[in-house]
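Q: what does this look like with 2-acetamido-2-deoxy-beta-D-glucopyranose bound?
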Amino acid sequence: MAPRPLRLTSRRFSLKPLLIALLILVPICMIVIFNHSQKISYFFRPLWDNPPPPFKRLPHFYAENVSMEHLCKLHGWSIRLQPRRVFDSIIFSNELDILEIRWRELSPYVTKFVILESNTTFTGIPKPLFFSSNRARFAFTEGKIVHGVFPGRIASPGSHENPFVLEAEQRRAMNGLLFYAGISDEDLLIMSDTDEIPSPHTVKLLQWCDGVPPILHLELRQYMYSFEFPVDYSSWRATIHIYNPGTLYRHSRQTDLIFSDAGWHCSFCYRHLQEFVFKLTAYSHADRVRRREFLNYYRIQKLICRGDDLFDMLPEEYTFRELIKKMGPIPHSGSAVHLPAYLIENADKFRFSKEAGMSKEKDNGFTDPSLASQS
Ligand SMILES: *[C@@H]1O[C@H](CO)[C@@H](O)[C@H](O)[C@H]1NC(C)=O
Ligand SMILES: *[C@@H]1O[C@H](CO)[C@@H](O)[C@H](O)[C@H]1NC(C)=O
């Protein structure tokens, strides 16, 4: 068979349609990229970012009615004659309901609740001292409270106060407050945000056993908006320390060890929509509020009822498999098992935090702003 002749002269082809198509497509692409740059970059995170170094998981044994001596032994530790004193330290913003659940849970084991609050937000906006003005609500543990006020700075208009700087200053102030509260060597110190709650049996175990590592991260079950929306076990920032003079208050990676299934982290678990808006403008990631409509009550209500993302962001994941699995709303859970006991005992009072959708609809403060202050 003779080779087919090569055709060098192709059909005449005009560049014009191509140019017109480009003229239309390029601006569209630019608009899409401009509006969704965050989504696009998060979607490709598995290509441009590496996950943090993995933690070494410390197994965690617990069941009701198993003796403390046996539990200590299962972890390779031994039982103490006396429990350690426990200091629980938090920097408080406006999470009054979560604070009450936290302190009711931990009160039987804690020696001092050390709480620092500031009269400005991390973003430099003046704020009320929410704890001070609601202190009566915490009378059940008044004798254990050590409260400090951090004088904040107001960001001058136009300037951009770096929220992480104010946050770091407050963490430093906490070291002084802990000293004032009387912490000493060998005490157990919990460092976490208000909404990162170690389970009571975890605290009890660590206070009763000898041989516990000096620093442990806590792997907490992550919830979003309410205990109705369990996300995963990705929360790791909370730590428990055996205090020594070099211990510094931090909320970042401090060791490779993490204690499995050690409590709950309920993010954005608020009763009123005003509290969401406050949090959105106050917290260190306030830059995520990229559009004015993000603070719209109706939009927030709709998203939290569906378990959707408030910032219209994609999940922060490092593999495409995890990313795609987590896209879209968080599925509702029908379980209210292994939640804080005080929450279950007072399920009606904390209805919003188990059924975000239902009660915020009734109780959303659309028309009555005074709802924000009574809780
Ligand atoms: C469980 O608790 C009950 C009542 O306190 C006690 O009688 C029983 O011996 C306990 N069981 C175990 C396995 O420890
Ligand atoms: C915060 O408190 C400090 C110290 O009491 C005070 O000097 C400052 O003016 C206060 N700032 C605001 C915004 O209230």
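Residues 107 and 141 are 7 Å apart (CA to CA). The two ends are 90 Å apart (CA to CA).
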